[in-house]
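S1.2 Input.
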Amino acid sequence: MKRKDFFKLTAAGAAGLTLGSSCKRTGQKSEPVSGMEIKQEVPAYRGMIKSSFSAELGKAPSDRVVLALIGAGGYGSRLAMDAARAGNNVQIKYICDVDDTRGGWAETELEEIQGFKPQKVRDMRRVFDDEEVDGVFIATPEHWHALATIWACQAGKDVYVEKPISHNIFEGQQMIKAAMKYERIVQCGTQNRIADYAFTARDYIKSGELGDIYAVHVRSLEGSPVPFNPGEGSQAPDTIDWNMWLGPAPEVPYSVSRHRSWAYYWDYGSGPATGGDSIHQLDLARLIISDPGFPGSVYCAGGRYFFDDDRDVPDYQMATFDYGDFVLTLQTGQCAPYMQKTSTEIRFSKNEFPQWMQNSSRIDILGTKQMMFAGRMGGGWQAFDRDEKIVAQDTGLYPMEPHILDFIDCIRTRNKPKGDIIEGHNSSVLMHLANLSYRAGNKQLLFSSEYETILNDEKAAVLTRGNYRQGFEITEDV
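S1.3 Output.
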């Protein structure tokens, strides 16, 4: 895709980007706590990464691409319909969900789009057994993302997996291993990776106009706080396979709250604002500053401030990631009714900019010369000098259609997708680290970027891996 140039409103300054090279902070080192056993091994997936896959696994441009949807909630249903509308010679053969009450809307719409109804199935393994299926959209609750992706890769299917791609750090590593071992395309649902304006923002920073970057602030403040009311355990209705819904998670009785509000439980998600939303901003921020690696430490404070209820996750948290050369912060929660996302008009149709002050998903990038505001999934970016003077800018719309088309194109060509699994993992690690720090008691955690390991808290180190029920294990050997 051809990238457009950013619109610069002042004369060019000195070139040469550095991420705070002139103000590197020294001092704290990531050293393990005395007596804590650290697994000092470089993750195995790094030695398996391939720059390209065999072209023999691809398809001719005229060949039909057959896809399936796994997880037929509102977002997943829209993915399938967008693919059926946008793709050239694409069909959705299956709608798979363990809950029979979901997917009816998508079934009806897809019949109208493609002239036949997709098959409804409960068990995703029926989809994986069908040799005609080329790829799958995985839009299940988070605790299923990794295992469903690994099973799909093992079955020879390409994957579009929703964000966040994993439920813990170990899972992301195993997903990369599976993608590389079986040479499968794995596209992540981080659509900003294909947005033109993300790349013009990166180019502007690379030009040196902002100066050295010393701080990046990421916002994800949901504007509609709601109380959480956990339901009592009960008999699962006949319309759902509760055992399959739980999958890798611990066995517990059915409850409506676990089923419908799973994002509030650590067993299934990472928080509706943190996992469900902030990963978009974290991934975009990383892209704009040229995808730095992992931080040396994270400190996250938070709690339940708006509603003192029984949810597992906080309703507000603030994390600070120390990269040594610069600081990245994440502010996320569901307790800001005065904040709102960029309007649908700006995201989908208007070449305008958000009202930045109370924008709930704004990214701030602070340089030694200028600062930048950026919006995610539409909204563009603007660079500012003193006195709110705009010196450069670029608009941009929600890039869902090109992101899906990129996935379909990569199924045919075997090219690396724009939102590939490696960067999806790297961004998800930040989200996991924030939650690990919070769950460790708002404790600063030291992190080894070499080993992808927590160095100073055994409880947090254990939580970087999951505990899986029999029959749903994720093991070292994928």
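S1.4 Remarks. The domain at 1-46+196-233+252-399+421-468 is CATH 3.30.360.10 (Dihydrodipicolinate Reductase; domain 2).
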